Amino acid sequence: AQSVTQPDIHITVSEGASLELRCNYSYGATPYLFWYVQSPGQGLQLLLKYFSGDTLVQGIKGFEAEFKRSQSSFNLRKPSVHWSDAAEYFCAVGARTGANNLFFGTGTRLTVIP
Amino acid sequence: DTGVSQNPRHKITKRGQNVTFRCDPISEHNRLYWYRQTLGQGPEFLTYFQNEAQLEKSRLLSDRFSAERPKGSFSTLEIQRTEQGDSAMYLCASSPDRGQYFGPGTRLTVT
User: Fold this and answer.
1) pLDDT tens-digit profile of B45-69?
2) Cα–Cα distance between A55 and B74 in angstroms, integer?
3) What are the DSSP calls for chain B, one per residue?
4) How many Cβ contacts (< 8 angstroms) between chains A and B?
5) What is the pLDDT of residues A6-16, one digit of tens each?
6) pLDDT tens digits, one per residue of A96-107
């Protein structure tokens, strides 16, 4: 069965510090991989996605993620966090065939302190 | 920029009432998804349309839930005889092929 694990429920970082959010998945084959961000009361915004090719993926707002097949991981990184990055971050996997519906992790809440 | 829109944004209803939500996807997207998100959780897949055909339904979609997408355009999600456990955020997403773009969601509160 497919599953997505985000081991950190809540992370607090100082503004300007670097950030890494962890994501591990369990899937029968290499899935499509995504990171979404959700601000309070809002829908989800797509930050970046991995389908194939270069395992280091650049996204919006200065985020990047690296796919490591051997570790079944897709960690999200940002070199310098801004106060506006405070939000909930979700990692998701999707099948390469069929409906391509997404399976989400439980999310990591990011707090940014001045 | 016309993204995915959902109406209403908030709905409060009494237990046992029926409710209907609407989703307008990005116009050129032929794939449409419904998800449900409860507090502290990630979204969970409910159902999927390709054009007007409903091709997949999750086990979460009980008999009280029905979804339609007439003419492959907007979609509606109806919940009959609402229960308190139905309280959640209902999210719609559309996709041209791979990668899904979400609307702002409809928050349902059942009292």
Assistant:
1) 999 999 999 999 998 889 999 999 9
2) 36
3) ----EEE-SEEEE-TT--EEEEEE--TT--EEEEEEE-TTS--EEEEEEETTEEEEE-TTS-TTEEEE-GGGS-EEEEESS--GGG-EEEEEEEESSSS-EE---EEEEE-
4) 62
5) 999 999 999 99
6) 888 788 999 999
Q: Could you check whether the bond before residue B43 is cis, i.e. omega within 30 degrees of 0?
A: no
Q: Which residues of A touch B (CB under 8 A)?
A: 4, 32, 34, 36, 41-46, 49, 51, 90, 92, 94, 98-107
Query: Which residues on B lie below 8 Å from A53 (Cβ)?
Result: none
Contacts of A30 in chain B (CB under 8 A): none
Beta bridge partners of A9: none
Measure A109 CA to nearest chain B CA, in Å.
Answer: 10
